[in-house]
UniProtKB/TrEMBL annotation:
Keywords: Membrane, Metal-binding, Transmembrane, Transmembrane helix, Zinc, Zinc-finger
Composition bias type Basic and acidic residues, residue spans: 46-56
Protein name (record): C2H2-type domain-containing protein
Highest taxon above the source species: Eukaryota
Species of provenance: Anisodus acutangulus
Gene Ontology MF: a single term: zinc ion binding
Segments for region (Disordered): 32-56
Residue span, C2H2-type domain: 112-137
TM regions (residue ranges): 12-31, 231-253
Ranges annotated as biased composition (Polar residues): 32-45
Keyword set includes Hydrolase: no
Entry keyword Membrane: yes
């Protein structure tokens, strides 16, 4: 009987242990609602990353190219009342980042806002990252990379990447000149009209002639957009504010001088009358 009791006790212990293991496994295996949400969020994040459009185009250099176009080309184009043809690589529709750049809202020095979802960022580079991560699906796949024409437009000078002591590469200069002349022919066909002829010549002088290792012309030799000098503007405002004060001081000084002269004359007259005869 003692042996049977021991066997039953052991069997009972095994049953209790098995039940405990089953309860533990069943309690830990199903995900709680919060865990399921976390897993779904992680999955959706991975899906978002997998759906991000991989764009092999430098946003920074594209922005530099557009800056050169706005500063050193468009003032002359607007003066001639000429519209760039859509087949021209410099047309805004051919910039893959143009729509995103136009949806940047610069509120303050340290505040940038996304025009799509209204999220705010403290620097432009963080807004660029946001565009890459969240709104890359809005990029126009038919547009081209504006950074591809940076060599022709001297973007390095605008970005201040190019050192003055960098040795000139004749092969690179020849490639950039060829690209530059192709842009001039495509965007401003010579002999099509007086305006296009003038703009074609200006584009060659403004950009293409500087692609040489023999020195000579410098980029942007025809100048660009005129900016109001902030120091000059501040000095002008300050002068306008101080000018009335200056005249007021001069007026008061002259009045005091006249009053002093009159007092001196009165004293002189009184002194003369008081002398004995």
């Amino acid at each position: 009987m003692e042996t049977l009791r021991q066997i039953r006790a052991k069997n009972y212990s095994y049953i209790v242990l098995l039940c405990f293991v089953l309860i533990t496994v069943s309690a830990t295996s199903p995900l709680s609602p919060s865990d399921q949400g976390t897993e779904q969020h992680a999955t959706s994040a991975e899906q978002d990353k997998s759906h991000v459009h991989e764009v092999h185009c430098s946003r920074e250099r594209s922005r530099a190219a557009w800056k050169v176009i706005e500063e050193y080309l468009m003032p002359f184009v607007e003066r001639e009342k000429y519209e760039l043809p859509r087949q021209c690589r410099l047309h805004p529709s051919n910039d893959i980042f143009r729509d995103q750049e136009e949806h940047k809202i610069h509120l303050d020095v340290n505040e940038w806002r996304c025009g799509y979802c209204k999220k705010s960022f403290r620097a432009e580079k963080f807004l660029d990252q946001h565009f890459d991560n969240r709104h890359s699906n809005l990029l126009d796949g038919q547009s081209k990379c504006m950074a591809d024409v940076c060599g022709a437009l001297h973007c390095d000078l605008v970005m201040e990447f190019k050192s003055k002591k960098t040795k000139c590469n004749p092969a690179a200069a020849a490639r950039n000149r060829h690209l530059c002349e192709g842009l001039a022919d495509k965007c401003f066909p010579a002999n099509q009209s007086p305006s296009t002829t003038r703009l074609h010549e200006l584009f060659l002088r403004q950009f293409c002639d500087a692609h040489t290792c023999s020195g000579g012309r410098k980029p942007f030799s025809r100048g660009g957009k005129k900016h109001t000098n902030r120091f000059y503007l501040a000095a002008s405002v300050l002068t306008l504010m101080l000018l009335p004060l200056f005249y007021l001081i001069v007026y008061l000084y002259q009045r005091e001088m006249k009053r002093g002269t009159q007092e001196l004359k009165r004293i002189t007259k009184i002194g003369r009358k008081s002398k004995p005869s």
